[in-house]
Amino acid sequence: MGDHPGFDMISYRTDGETRLIEVKGRAQSGNIDISENEWSAACNHREKYWLYVVYNCAIASPRPITINDPLGACSQNQGYVLEETEILGIQNKDYHTGDFDVFY
Predict the structure, then answer these.
(1) What is the value of pTM for the model shown?
(2) What one-character-per-residue DSSP string does 2-46 give?
(3) Residue 80: helix, strand or coil by DSSP?
(4) What is the DSSP letter of 85?
(5) 4-14 burial by CB neighbour count: b if 16+ within 10 A, else e?
(6) Residue-wise DSSP of 47-69
(7) How confident is residue 92, by pLDDT bands cut at 50, 70 and 90?
(8) DSSP character for 78?
(9) Binning pLDDT at 50, 70 and 90, where does residue 44 land?
(10) What SS3 class is residue 82?
(11) pLDDT-based confidence at 100, cuts 50/70/90?
């Protein structure tokens, strides 16, 4: 992997799944900008690629949302901006169950 793989971290989960995770945070709310390099990685690693969006980073109760295969999940996969309404509409079950990755 090069210096700019298009994601922030790799997670090896206890169930054997590997996730390539891009994390985006917003102090409150709003749209998310995705770089061309990140979209390219999402395209090349479809099922392994995850976008973790964390809203309300500036307060004590942040709101994490996970999206598997954002390229396939988003209707506007032509551009590099994901609208907040779309993100909230396609959030994955992980948000509801609390089944998040643990990093050491």
Answers:
(1) 0.81
(2) -S--SSSEEEE-TTS-EEEEEEEE-SS---EE--HHHHHHHHHTG
(3) coil
(4) H
(5) ebbbeeebeee
(6) GGEEEEEEE-TTSSS-EEEEEES
(7) low
(8) T
(9) very high
(10) strand
(11) low
